[in-house]
Amino acid sequence: MTMLTSSPTSATVNLQQLMDASNRNDHRLAQALSAMIAASAQALATQTSTNQAASAQLNTVANVPFQRFRLDSRQVAPNDVFVLLKSHTPNCQKSRDYLYQAAKNAAFILSEIDPIALFATANVPPHANIALSTDDSQSVAQQQLDSLPCPVLYVPNIRDFLGDLIQSHLQHQQPVTLPAVVAVTGTNGKTTISQLVAQLTQLTGMSSAVMGTAGNGRLGALVQASHTTGDALAVQQFLYQMGSENAELLALEASSHGLDQQRLQGMPVSVAIYTNLSRDHLDYHADMAEYAAAKARLFDKAHFPDLTHAIINIDDEHAQVMLDTAHASELTVWTYSLDASKTATFIAAKIKPSLQGVEISLHTDFGDGKINNLDIVSPLLGRFNVANLLAAMAAAVAIGAKSNVGIERIATAVAQLQGAVGRMQRVPSNDGCFIVDYAHTPDALSQVLASLKTHCKGQLWAVFGCGGDRDAGKRPLMAQAGLAGADQVILTADNPRTEDPQMILQDMQAGMSAEQYQRTHIEPARQKAIEYAVNQAAADDIVVIAGKGHETYQEINNVRYDFDDSVILQHALEHAGRV
Ligand SMILES: CC(=O)N[C@H]1[C@@H](OP(=O)(O)OP(=O)(O)OC[C@H]2O[C@@H](n3ccc(=O)[nH]c3=O)[C@H](O)[C@@H]2O)O[C@H](CO)[C@@H](O)[C@@H]1O[C@H](C)C(=O)N[C@@H](C)C(=O)N[C@H](CCC(=O)O)C(=O)O
Ligand SMILES: Nc1ncnc2c1ncn2[C@@H]1O[C@H](COP(=O)(O)OP(=O)(O)OP(=O)(O)O)[C@@H](O)[C@H]1O
Ligand SMILES: N[C@H](CCC[C@H](N)C(=O)O)C(=O)O
């Protein structure tokens, strides 16, 4: 991720000053800081004997000068504030280690975890007969806490305002106008739509940037990041950096993990887009309802107070949750659909796809006083990309309204839009058709294959695997999606991460029939699998290499080896004399 390595100036500040400045400029943060003080006071009052002692501790921390916020104990330098966040799987030993490491340098620590409870667990021996009493263990914990080289303030609700706090600190050092933010959520389509929104707004005169799976920054100069949605510090620093580089619009991807963990708190999201929800990440979310609820946070003004517009795909079966949340937040709700028989704000009334792209008859009625019927052409492949285009156009209309950029201008610009790298990306060949795509969910793979099947005169081939250390339940579903949509399937490795690739392949094969085995080739080495497809496919066939898209590595046992599907495919085509 592009990150500022240091704050704009090295001047120190304290929480009281931030609060005073916020009272003048930004009531939201002032409210948040008051809430922090109230929550901490309440928490402290249960630990210290008097409210007076609690407010004394708060005052001390509020007046300690500091330089930067840090969320990672390994990066804490002298005069930094360390914010200790809970780990997704609670682990007291791990959190204590982070606390000790940070305390060596930190000016003070804001802790989401009750520090007394954290130390008390260390003081309770595993054998009950020699256990300290609860009181003893609490008082030992208090002593341990007091002996740390810096104060620790328990702020259980810190995630509710952490992004605001970090941004106010950056702004206090040097004020910057922040870009407007369009955020996209959903299982599939986030990268594509965010990049389309950035291109569209740029073509209509804005300075735009993106943040997501394919990287962060200006299109054409993206810097790869560790996460689709970075942590609160990374995303706020990036927002600030884009503001200081005069970006007027940031189109970002809101992953369900990011929303659930409030990594985007404080992002000035004004337009929120929902694409779809299908099986993925059930290693993290308990079920689809919980997964949907995480996505719905993006449409809730309580979480994103700058929201004005919600843009929702009503062809999706989980759309109602988003619609309800958006309506409850009194947003302007625009819907989109590929079904001409439905009532939606943006409808693709006719779709004429080909292997060169698509022609769309767009029908819109978004309250500009007229009903628009517009003919649109796009080089993007795949029926689902028509939905992505509708979402992007709707967002561009919402953003463009302030500067009077109308739907006609936006619709004309669509012809110039490029798809995201590694999504339905055609790799040139003399014959056949070879495509690299990022489908890594059963639904995405089904949609990609269904779209290509309509253009395929010969056989349709699918080469794919499943990632390790990710939702294992989707593995047989991916294999079945491939087998249902393609004539020939080649199962291979994706990013095994710390898992055994053979075991992942076995998981994928669960429930496969004899007929399915007959048209399946299993080749764990991904390069060989791609070469096999290139050598076997006939001139009328279409081959899709799915799952890794833009990725330039294959991750095996924590090591990332150079691996780029499009490069490997190109070499295989050259070697086979097909280019
Ligand atoms: C399940 C999940 O989301 N885990 C994330 C979570 O890890 P965790 O809760 O186990 O926490 P942890 O690593 O103990 O860190 C807890 C806190 O301690 C800090 N820390 C950590 C280590 C240390 O030595 N010192 C220290 O202070 C961390 O900075 C953090 O603030 O917090 C970590 C720090 O921010 C993340 O790196 C980690 O992402 C893991 C690596 C991950 O794989 N996440 C994936 C699933 C993810 O988030 N994916 C989505 C995209 C999904 C999609 O396709 O849609 C994404 O947005 O990228
Ligand atoms: N609207 C859509 N509906 C279904 N599938 C889609 C849609 N858009 C894209 N896809 C499929 O999903 C793949 C990933 O697309 P994209 O990168 O845009 O999604 P994403 O939500 O950003 O994914 P991730 O966050 O997991 O990286 C594409 O390569 C394509 O196969
Ligand atoms: N953002 C997704 C990407 C998956 C891509 C696929 N190639 C894999 O490694 O599973 C994830 O981290 O689950």
From TrEMBL:
A motif (Meso-diaminopimelate recognition motif) lies at residues 494-497. Meso-2,6-diaminopimelate binds at R470, D494, N495, P496, R497, G547, E551. Gene3D superfamilies: Mur ligase, C-terminal domain (3.90.190.20), Mur-like, catalytic domain (3.40.1190.10), MurE/MurF, N-terminal domain (3.40.1390.10). Pathway: Cell wall biogenesis; peptidoglycan biosynthesis. Its EC number is 6.3.2.13. Pfam families: Mur_ligase_C, Mur_ligase_M. Carboxylation is probably crucial for Mg(2+) binding and, consequently, for the gamma-phosphate positioning of ATP. Residues 422-549 form the Mur ligase C-terminal domain. Residues 184-396 form the Mur ligase central domain. It is an enzyme of class 6 (ligase). UDP-N-acetyl-alpha-D-muramoyl-L-alanyl-D-glutamate binds at L71, S73, T228, T229, S255, Q261, R263. InterPro entries: Mur-like_cat_sf, Mur_ligase_C, Mur_ligase_C_dom_sf, Mur_ligase_cen, UDP-N-AcMur-Glu-dNH2Pim_ligase. It is found in: Cytoplasm. One of its GO terms (molecular function) is ligase activity. This is UDP-N-acetylmuramoyl-L-alanyl-D-glutamate--2,6-diaminopimelate ligase. It comes from Psychrobacter glaciei. The lineage of its organism: Bacteria, Pseudomonadati, Pseudomonadota, Gammaproteobacteria, Moraxellales. The gene is murE.
